[in-house]
Write a structure and sequence with these properties.
The protein has about 425 residues and is α/β, with parallel strands linked by helices. The chain folds into three domains: about 200 residues, 3-Layer(bba) Sandwich (FAD/NAD(P)-binding domain), CATH 3.50.50; about 130 residues, FAD/NAD(P)-binding domain; about 80 residues, Enolase-like, domain 1, CATH 3.30.390. The chain is built from nine helices and 26 strands. Strands 1, 2, 3, 4, 5, 6 and 19 form a seven-stranded mixed sheet that branches. A five-stranded parallel sheet has the order 8-15-9-10-11, covered by helices on one side. A five-stranded antiparallel sheet has the order 22-23-26-25-24. Helix 1 runs parallel beside helix 6.
Amino acid sequence: MAEKSFKYVILGGGVAAGYAAREFAKQGVHPGELAIISKEAVAPYERPALSKAYLFPEGAARLPGFHVCVGSGGERLLPEWYKEKGIELILSTEIVKADLPANTLVSATGETFKYQILIIATGSTVIKLTDFGVQGADAKNIFYLREIDDADKLVEAIKAKKNGKAVIVGGGYIGLELGAALKINNLDVSMVYPEPWCMPRLFTSGIAAFYEGYYANKGIKIIKGTVAVGFTSNSNGEVKEVQLKDGRVLEADIVVVGVGGRPLTALFKGQVEEEKGGIKTDAFFKTSVPTVYAVGDVATFPLKLYNELRRVEHVDHARKSAEQAVKAIKGLEKGQSVDEYDYLPYFYSRSFDLAWQFYGDNVGDTVLFGDNNPQSPKPKFGSYWIKDGKVVGAFLEGGSAEENQAIAKVAKLQPKAENLDALTKEGLAFACKI
């Protein structure tokens, strides 16, 4: 097999790869210097669309409409853009071996790729119920959502099982967004998760109560405190029932599982330092191997604001970490210094007519403010997290662009707030005056 050599290789074809490519183009990359190697068959796209607009019954998002970098208001990088810039897109190519000391990657078909600088942007893979040996979890019409192929299969099933019954396993991001998407497609939706409330890693019980109430008002059945322990199928091998640990059995034409992901770092085991489930990097996303950088989901990096190492799985960090790594790489070449990565954790979601944003850290005491009645025509409410007398995190549902900027500013500046009752009363006004 022929060997291909590049100055820079980005391994992975997700959001981070697209934003890194754009930054390379901005910084000045010569034709033939940069390659993106991806196991997906399409150029990098904005992955969040898959659980939202891609599943709409009308006016659904389709490629080429949501290639990067439209998700952050940037230009859309079509396959032709990469050609024009002399960036090689090596698609439908799975790398099965990485030899970091030899600066070499090997594909499943035996192709060899050499690089001078490698950016690991492999992202995460979904955790599957088959990984735990759940009985019947290999039945047809049990779906996971990570890539565009997964979304296409789900769209086909929604059409085939019109007005059918759907069961969502998991109460996190994917569970809530897909619960809404399937309901909008007129399916009868049940959600099942073991925790006492949805999105437990971020939401307080007070925040979660609003979303659970809102979803219930939309006709979504929420079953908490139990898990799926088995599936039965019909004679065609299609899922027909979900068996729960508490003994209940739910009918199902479609099952969607969203129980988390794991970073794709196995190729590099023993070759780079790891920490907190990811590849350890510095503030420029350089790993313990000087020619190798890691960005997005796989990177465990110094979060300057909190003076600790963290791994963040979110599109905002995927974009920004990719840009930071490229700035650092090009800065080194040009002998120019680059500022350390100074990230403010940011998460958001949209479903039905709802849209929330969160900034900062969800630690310490909490206060809930505003109108969180699920039946309100225009609900607007939020929370602050207070640690050591300072506001360290802020959440807002139904905020305007200016109000969302205000809560971001609060999380960044960490103003003092000794009196929690006063903070509750003041609510959003506290953020708007900072």
